[in-house]
Amino acid sequence: MMTITPMKITLTACLLAVMASGCQTPMQKSQPAAGLVQSEPTKPVTATANVHSYQVAPPSQPVTQAACVEPVESTTVGYSASCGDISSTGGHVSYEAETFSIGDRCSPGCGTSCQTAAPTTPHGYAVPYPIHHNVYAIDPNEFICNGGDEDPQAFLKRNERLAGLNLQDTVVHYTTDAGDIDIQESNRTCIYAPRFASVRKITGARSGGRAIGLAGVDRPLGPNRVQFDQPNLTMTDTTELARAEVAHRVDAMRDRNRGVRVENVLQPIVAEDVLAALVGLSALELNQLQENQLALLQEAAAAAVSWTVDESVEVAIEDLKAPTLTRDQRVEELTVYDFPDAGRLQIVKLADRKHAQPGDLVTFAIRVENVGDSAVQNVTLTDNLTTRLEYIEGSQTCSGGAEFASESNAGESLTLQWKLTDKLRVGESVTIRFQCKVR
Amino acid sequence: MTRRPNSPLRILVAAIVGSLISIHSFAISAVANAADPGDFLGSGGQHRVLTDAMPPGSVGQSRLSGPGAVQGYFQPVAFSGPGNVGFSMPESANYFGSPNPKLQVGLMVGGVYRFRITGIPGSEGAELYPTIELIDRIYPPPGLATTFPIPINLDQDDFEAALAGQLVTRVIYLEDPDTAAPLAETPTTSRTIDLAEYQDALEVGDRFGRPVAIVRIGSVAPPTADALMPQFFFGYPLWAPIYQPAAVQ
Questions:
Q1: Measured between alpha carbons, how far is A184 from A344 in angstroms, rounded to an integer?
Q2: What is the mean pLDDT of chain B?
Q3: pLDDT digits (tens, 9 = 90+) for A334-384
Q4: Percentage of chain A with pLDDT > 70?
């Protein structure tokens, strides 16, 4: 029969404690001689003359081995070469009393417990990566964007229906002379139009409790006021009244705000004749990009393009391939194959407003031009309107012959589609205009 | 009845059948260990730091230590309500300005502002003193700050509930255009989602967009003691008046 004595319990607890602190055991085994000869295992640390306050291990405590911490010889200055890519994180700074190095790349002896995530400071402490929130002080949720082709990209199915057409997408697909079906996306047009909503929670007495009328009794008698009087002793700070004087300085804001409003009032006058403003652009009429209209065109095209870098009016430049010449050995037989380059469409989408309130009308103009080397046919322009854009019925116009159709889409809005009835020859273009109401 | 000897083939078949039975029983046990159906929409072992039940100012003050240029910016806010409801801001220690049905002011993030509502339809003579706490701002293009204020659209239900002694907590949020409701809106109409009492308005608003303001409408009246006024007005935080533009001929 085995008896349990307090001594046995103590011994068992000690054994468990030793087993639990397993990381220290190998270190003690690796330095048996030092532990016997010297009572302080980290004595070489104190041997250095200049001891800074940022040394890692106190001299009086035994060295504990942690992940990626390797002891360095006392003569070593700086960081050990075997443990760490320190040079990129300030490793050239030498600390004479530094006896341990913690790097983000360790020697094989460190095993799999190396730090690989965050960069290290000269002291070896990991710092988080800097996180940039809203660097440009822009919130994309305040904009309505339309145009482009977001992933997944649109493609044409066998039944000539587009798939992969997301909300906001605007694409045109056409058939070249060679029989290929190509899809070209438009640029992206963004309008500043934030919209707000709210959630409401009403708490307090329920309908039955209200019939009892406790609230009605409470209010005129003012138990609340009894409560107010209780902290009266602590609320004697009258310095708050001085803040009211500061509020008078705010009057200087009046002129500034007025100026803003007057400026905005003038703006609708300029943009009132929307179609005329867009017609005046030579890039829209003649496809000539004039430098003096570059700013105006970019402004209208992107509307709020300044908050992204990679969105602008795209101009396709196509290199010309020489016709392929196949010559037989015999001079009298000359066969020339002429493969004209395929037709190519350029699609530009413009909006007449840069910002809009809910309920305002926005006019969009889409210009499609054949900038390729051969005619294209079956040109179909598809504009999938986003949820917050509502097409105004009957507002679309097309400068060429086209069949217009619309159907509802997943965003409770419409997918507009124009099928050109004629071929689009080289240099020809059509301009489509339509109006939308901002929801 | 003859008993056939255990051939190697029979042993192999028995092993396969046994393994299949064990796999089947493991599958059953795996189904039994799945999530409890009653534990729907679990919190994932987390809880929200900020809730709508926190004291006024807590959420806004915590936003000030966050990223972005939110400090020292007067965010325009536009009030609107049914009928000729007038809104007024405190212009001095205990004095509210004249009621304005289309009041527009610039408020700072983190501040709790007490304003007054008068001219409530059906309850003329009654006054409400709600608070608005700005917890975030928006980023309009230069020059459009007052054209695109944060709308505070209150309706008759808010007033009736507050006059009945209840507390109305509204969280105004910026809608995500990708998940916006396909409803036609105007600047003075905004969709309102009514929540149950056990729901956190801040959490729901955060799910639909970016919360920017919290409006609390109760039936508290100004205290009689002047010494309590700073507490009633939450320390008179700074605000900027915004005047409507004059009519241009």
A1: 9
A2: 83
A3: 555 655 566 788 888 888 888 999 999 999 999 998 888 888 888 999 999
A4: 40
Counting one residue from chain A and one from chain B, the pairs whose CB atoms sit within 8 A come to 249
Q: B143 — contact with chain A (CB < 8 Å)?
A: yes
Q: Which of B89, B174, B179, B224 to mutate to test the interface with A (most CBs of A within 10 A)?
A: B174
Chain A residue numbers with beta carbons less than 8 Å from the beta carbon of B172 are 196-198
* H helix intervals, A324-429: none
Record the tokens describing residue B93, joined without a space: 């220690």
Encoded amino acid at A110, one letter: C
Distance CA(A50)–CA(A341), nearest Å, equals 77
A-proximal residues of B, 44-83, CB under 8 Å: 52, 66-69, 74
Give the gap in angstroms from C-alpha B25 to the nearest C-alpha of chain A.
Answer: 37
Residues 6+ positions from B151 with CB-CB distance below 8 Å? A196, B77, B78, B80, B172, B187, B188, B190
Q: What is the value of ipTM here, to two decimals?
A: 0.78
Across the interface, which of A138, A355, A387 has its CB nearest the CB of B182?
A: A387
Q: Do the Cβ atoms of A247 and B243 come within 8 Å?
A: no
B249 touches A at CB < 8 Å: no
pLDDT digits (tens, 9 = 90+) for B104-147: 999 999 999 999 999 999 988 899 999 999 999 999 988 889 99
Q: Which residues pair with A200 in a beta bridge?
A: B170, B194
Q: With a cut of 60, say whether residue A392 has pLDDT above it.
A: yes
Instruction: Report yes or no on B83 lying in a domain.
Output: yes
Record: contact B204-A199, CB cut-off 8 A: yes
Give A85 or A310, the one with higher predicted confidence: A310
Nearest to B91 by CA among A253, A245, A257, A237: A245
C-alpha dist (Å) from residue A35 to A32, A71, A74: 5, 15, 16
Residue B118 maps to a domain: yes
Length of chain B: 249
> Helix, strand, coil: what percent of chain B each, to 5?
25, 25, 50
Number of domains in chain B: 1
Neighbours of B105 (CB within 10 A): 24
- Over range A7-20, report the average pLDDT: 51
| pLDDT value, residue B9 | 62
| A235 touches B232 (CB < 8 A) | no
Residue B43: inside a domain, yes or no? no
**Is A235 near chain B, with CB under 8 Å?**
yes
Confidence of residue A398 (pLDDT cuts 50, 70, 90): very high
* Three-class DSSP category at B179: helix
Are B248 and A225 within 8 A, CB to CB? no
Element (H, E) at A242: helix A240-246
Answer yes or no: are the C-beta atoms of B149 and B104 closer than 8 Å: yes
pLDDT band at A10 (very low <50, low <70, confident <90, very high): low
Give a yes or no: residue B195 inside a domain: yes
Provide the 10 A C-beta neighbour count for residue B78: 19
Domain boundaries, position B99: 12-33+66-222+233-241
* Residues making up chain A, counted from first to last: 439
